[in-house]
Amino acid sequence: MCGIVGYTGPKQAYPIVLKGLKRLEYRGYDSSGVALMNDGKLSVYKKKGKVAELEDYMIGKDVSAHIGIGHTRWATHGEPSDRNAHPHTSANGRFAMIHNGIIENYAQIKNELTNKGYSFTSDTDTEVLLNFIENIQQHNDCSLEEALRIALKRVTGAYCILLVDSEDPETIIAARKGSPLVIGVGKGEHFLASDASPIIEYTKEVVYVNDYELAIVKPNELILKNLGNEKITPFITKLDMELAAIEKGGYDHFMLKEIFEQPSTIFDCLRGRLDAVSGTITMAGIDQHIEQLKAANRILIIACGTSWHAALVAEYVIEELCRIPVEVEYASEFRYRNPIVNKGDVIIAISQSGETADTLVALEKAKENGAFIFGVVNAVGSSIARISHAGAYTHAGPEIGVASTKAFTGQLAVLTMMALSIAIQKGSITQERYQQLLTELQDVPEKVDAILKNADELKVIAEVYKDASDFLFLGRGYNFPIALEGALKLKEISYIHAEGYPAAEMKHGPIALVDENLPVVFIATKDSYHEKIISNMQEIKARKGKIISIITEGDEVSPGLSNHVFSIPPADELIAPILSVIPLQLLSYYTGVLKGIDVDKPRNLAKSVTVE
Ligand code: M6R
């Protein structure tokens, strides 16, 4: 959460920082600000609201500077406001700082500083940390770098910070623990950001800064050190990403673009891995660890949000194909209880961003206990990808809309390939079933394309129900997690209260909600549960609920029970969730848009949840 960006070099810093903030806005958008330094004069500008409001506010201001830092905020300490926006300035006005993360012991440090006569202009933990650094610098009469190092040894929590010093007009000092930082290496210039999107336009050479590292960044020099003041050689990575991937490409919203990209993102995910003709799946991360995976006594899958829903689908698929017990855990719960992780257990971590704090810390904990960790991650080079022992990228490309769409279908594709690989090598499925599922998986991009051609049908349904106050999403078996995902998407993007339930469980409580005003979405594709879900539809119809059904083409029964149907191509029940989720993504998208909501940046949310 929160996006940070910095520039030092010969170009004008402000346009680079502002553009970077727009690219990082998905990480938080309740306020934003910049600090610009020109000839040792430090100017800080900040504004409540989205980056566009900062941009308007800056009109007419002197923005010339060759060094600048900028921040777009997702509030933790202190409400969204001008005064809580970053950058913060130290009490003596010499330093400015931006921060992504949470300083957990800020109250204690604030107390100490208050006793020393400090007062604060904001409610943030960031201002406390900055003044703590200032106080150490003054007290020890040391460099800012040294003061920062001392301060960071005292703080607990997570941070990625960028600091500028009005007495050092070309240096940005950065540090990270638990929140991401990428440094772009240009010719006589450096770019700093929370992810590569603000950097890609200028250079493809980047350095991913690790936890407990400090970077001293000047136009012509990048020095990395650990907190013990030892130098570390920066490892330069080449970005495999094009600028077009982070632009809207003619779509009204990133979310719509990302939904429509799914035929190609799923294809990219399968490409070079799945070959239905030769009957093979080649995934280095799996092949190199196949003995361990085959022999797993238990698989534990850890994730949050939409990635957690992918984990639930994987639970059904892996247990069915591999006959290995699977448990799915919310990362936030796993990290704080005392989970039992035994030798022989395999942990799968699923994350789009690869930076979700709860997932990251849960994995660190499991790793300390000796667990083997397999990461299913979208963001290349992210923290979760790096902490995993092995893994497979989803290759969905940058996902910018806050609501996860293409990353989810990529996760399902990877997890299904993983299950198939383990199952065939373990001998828990027949060659015939394996071959059939490979072919089905290979056909998915084409079927998604066919679904997207009928997207307008969902727009019509969204128009009918956009003013509903509640929605129920029901599914069984492989489609139960899709019901949860449909409900989450609708809540996030349209602010309509929605519940996802296993269709049969509905009788045990939620059925009390059903009346003639309640839209109930059934994910009722043709599978082994179909007759059962038809009975559940009857139960809703008998109580006058409005039924919207996602069905398989050719289903002649469901339309008679439904107020609206949307058909998807036939698919094996294991593969169907990758298809049945698409209409639900579109239904949420159109509902949100019809309600006038900024679907790429819905209220209170941030794309990458890097605080617990
Ligand atoms: O980046 P991650 O996959 O780890 O993120 C997990 C959740 O924060 C994320 O899926 C969230 O629920 C999305 N906004 C859902 O659309």
Distance between the termini: 10 Å
Average per-residue pLDDT, rounded, comes to 94
CATH fold description of the largest domain: Glutamine Phosphoribosylpyrophosphate, subunit 1, domain 1
Quickly count the domains.
Answer: 3
Per CATH, the superfamily of the largest domain is Aminohydrolase, N-terminal nucleophile (Ntn) domain
Query: CATH class of the largest domain, please?
Result: Alpha Beta
Number of strands: 27
**Rg to the nearest angstrom?**
25 Å
What percent of the residues sit in helical stretches (DSSP H or I)? 25-40%
Describe the main β-sheet briefly.
8 strands, antiparallel
Task: Annotate the secondary structure layout.
Layout: E1 3-8, H1 13-24, E2 31-38, E3 41-48, H2 51-58, E4 67-73, E5 88-89, E6 95-103, H3 106-115, H4 125-140, H5 144-154, E7 157-165, E8 168-177, E9 182-185, E10 190-193, E11 205-208, E12 213-218, E13 221-226, E14 231-232, E15 236-238, H6 254-260, H7 262-270, E16 274-275, E17 280-281, H8 284-287, H9 290-294, E18 298-303, H10 305-322, E19 326-330, H11 331-334, E20 345-351, H12 357-368, E21 372-377, H13 383-387, E22 390-393, H14 406-426, H15 431-442, H16 444-453, H17 455-465, E23 470-475, H18 480-494, E24 497-502, E25 519-524, H19 530-542, E26 546-552, H20 558-561, E27 564-568, H21 576-594
Parallel strand pairs: 18-19, 18-20, 20-21, 21-22, 23-24, 23-25, 25-26, 26-27
Antiparallel strand pairs: 1-4, 1-10, 2-3, 2-4, 5-6, 6-7, 7-8, 8-12, 9-10, 9-11, 11-15, 12-13, 13-14, 16-17
Helix pairs in contact: 3-4, 4-5, 7-14, 7-16, 10-14, 10-18, 14-15, 14-21, 16-21, 17-21, 18-21
Bound molecules: 5-amino-5-deoxy-1-O-phosphono-D-mannitol (M6R).
